[in-house]
Amino acid sequence: MQPDTPILEMRNVVKDFTTGGGFAKTDIFRALNDISFSIHKGRALALVGESGCGKSTCARLITKIYEPTNGQILFRGKDITEIKGRQEVLNYRKSVQMIFQDPFGSLNPTHTIYHHLARPLLLHGMCENNKVKLRTRVEELLEMVELPSLTADKYPHELSGGQRQRVNMAKTLAVGADLVLADEPTSMLDVSIRIGVLDLMQRMKKEFNLGFLYITHDLATAHYIAEETAVMFKGQIVEWGDTTEVINNPQHPYTKLLISAVPDPDVRFADVIKGDLDYSDNAHHIRSISSAHSQQVKQVNHNHFVRQLAG
Ligand SMILES: Nc1ncnc2c1ncn2[C@@H]1O[C@H](COP(=O)(O)OP(=O)(O)O)[C@@H](O)[C@H]1O
Ligand SMILES: [Mg+2]
After folding, report:
1. pLDDT (tens digit, 9 = 90+) per residue, 290-304?
2. For the domain 8-307, what is the CATH code?
3. What is the 3-state secondary structure (H, E, C) of the chain?
């Protein structure tokens, strides 16, 4: 692998789903249309867009739950469709870890936190099967995610949502992941603790040199963790580049629409698009002109690109 090879690259990925359609007819729904992006070690890409635009489909393709209809997904330069066989897939799934929206969903209510962390350590041969060593390692992992060591003896329901999400983060550290796919990791948490969890992820990313895909519907949170941002709408990436560029100098009408919807009074996003038309009043029009597929891309800055409207 070249030193600048991305840890993960999506190259012109298309994903079609066949839906219902009755006996004679099957409808094809294009959930992803020509998606390309790269993720590098120690860096995060925010994939931002409203519900249904295709964000989780990207994550499912990367974890090999789905196969792409077209295009390529490269992990350390290697096409992931070539990752076959039990051991190879197990190794890949160890390197690529998911963190989900529901911090409870991925924890088993009948087991202690100790169990949740010791199990992957053993399963992936990350620690000797020795009680003292396992306990020490589990406590180290808890410390890394800023949880007290006594958390090990608790059950998931005894923790807050934010603490549970920290345990999920500790699980990804336990197996020595290289790439973390965090799918709306804070959207079920109280607003007051979201930033703490994002800050932790930001620190983990740097400290352990992790590549991060941060999936969110909330453009305003992208800058907490992601150097780069890609804005997605109806299966297409409409604008991408440095997060500061995309947020401070948005070009695509859909990005502007997202910004106009940010309710955070501390983030003076509204100023960015002041003087332009009233985005919230024109939402329907903007969505309709943004949905057609377009191949035309304009470079706005060194690392800032915008897809031109079709037609
Ligand atoms: N297995 C599937 N079969 C059919 N349609 C699907 C399937 N998975 C996702 N979709 C559709 O693809 C689109 C994108 O879904 P998803 O990636 O979950 O969006 P997001 O995560 O951005 O909310 C949605 O319209 C969804 O209904
Ligand atoms: Mg989703």
Report:
1. 999 899 999 999 999
2. 3.40.50.300
3. CCCCCCCEEEEEEEEEEEECCCCCCCEEEEEEEEEEEEECCCCEEEEECCCCCCHHHHHHHHCCCCCCCEEEEEECCEEHHHCCCHHHHHHHHHHEEEECCCCCCCCCCCCCHHHHHHHHHHHCCCCCCCHHHHHHHHHHHHHHCCCCHHHHHCCHHHCCHHHHHHHHHHHHHHCCCCEEEEECCCCCCCHHHHHHHHHHHHHHHHHCCCEEEEEECCHHHHHHCCCEEEEEECCEEEEEEEHHHHHHCCCCHHHHHHHHCCCCCCCCHHHHCCCCCCCHHHHHHHHHHHCCCCCCEEEEECCEEEECCCC
